[in-house]
Amino acid sequence: xxxxxxxxxxxxxxxxxxxxxxxxxxxxxxxxxxxxxxxxxxxxxxxxxxxxxxxxxxxxxxxxxxxxxxxxxxxxxxxxxxxxxxxxxxxxxxxxxxxxxxxxxxxxxxxxxxxxxxxxxxxxxxxxxxxxxxxx
Length: 136
Hints:
Layout: H1 2-13, E1 17-21, E2 37-40, E3 48-51, E4 55-76, E5 79-81, E6 95-97, E7 104-121, H2 126-135
Parallel strand pairs: 1-7
Antiparallel strand pairs: 2-3, 3-4, 4-7, 5-6
GO cellular component, one term: transcription factor TFIIIC complex
GO biological process, one term: transcription by RNA polymerase III
Pfam family, one: TFIIIC_sub6
């Protein structure tokens, strides 16, 4: 019994990561990368995302199939390690950054995802009413 209670507590303490998918609205609205947003109702079936107090998006969860991993990309400088017993090699065993080479991209896993939250425009979103006005 005690093992079950411990396992339940451990499961509750785990972080859960969710991917916010805005592909369906990407062509309809444009907002700056640093736009203010409010995300509410993550524990409901249809969370709401409001961007810049203008656009209201309604989300719907989709379970991932298989393993879904999110990655992070970082610029890293090109590093050369000096090796060898050469008497002329004053920097043996040290690492030198090659400033003549552009930085390379390094990718590392950030988290494993179990859900994707896909968003669509809410019928009462400002962008929807602007589109209707332009049609008239």
